Amino acid sequence: MDRRDFLKVGLGSSLLLMAGGLDAFAGEFGGGEFYGVLVDTTRCIGCRRCELACAKAHDLPIPDVSDKSVFDHYRDTSPTQWTVVNKFKTEKGYVFAKRQCMHCVQPACVAACLVKALVKHDTGQVTWNPRCMGCRTCMYSCPFDVPKFEFNTPTPTIEKCNLCYERFKEGKVPACVEACPQEALIFGTRRELLQEAHYRIHEYPDRYYPYIYGEREVGGTCYMYLSPVPFDQIGFRMDLGTKAFPEYTTGFLYAVCQVLVLWPAAMLGFYTATHMNSKKKKEDNE
Description:
By secondary structure, the chain is of the alpha+beta class.
């Protein structure tokens, strides 16, 4: 699929969604298609309109996007800012890169949540719901350090990008994608986005570093990136491996199950045997 065909598919998808809502795509959703965003950092100009759109869409504090001093230091996401753009000095000049939740294919945060407050939807989005008990295990388990806890409120919540799930249910693309003036952000199925990313790398080898970040990292993510330089130059971790983090914990969780279920039963058995033995000795003595 070339870029023109890809954009036709994307436009057709958007029109169908707007015309018929999710019912228009019921078959495709039923097939387990994950949706996501391809970020082409070669096109990003650092305008921060994605930050502004995200804030407006989710009733977050409105950032001053005219303030260029924010690029003087690296910024992380926060409970009140779910997406941020950073500026990096690289071997090919300055490169801007957007940061937000990566929406992993097999999210460590979802696997770690004891009360299922974090949910991985069949369409790819990872969202949070209020059943959270505030253990913050999701924060410690995330390989990208994304979930943020609201400390300064009597009713704290976990805050992060939700890939505009509510907008998605209404047939709309994510607010950041809609606002990008450079088409640095493309929304679509993960499969289509990977096809487009591979196409760009093949057709423009001088423009792109031959790697798609998020294609395989920690089992794959729904946010994926293209870059003109190696990804460690624009702040991305390259030590995560390709294995999904929840797979590392399978044996541990099985052991926990054994401890929680079998150990008390064993202790009860030991207690019963010891008690019976003591009772028998007492009867023999009498």
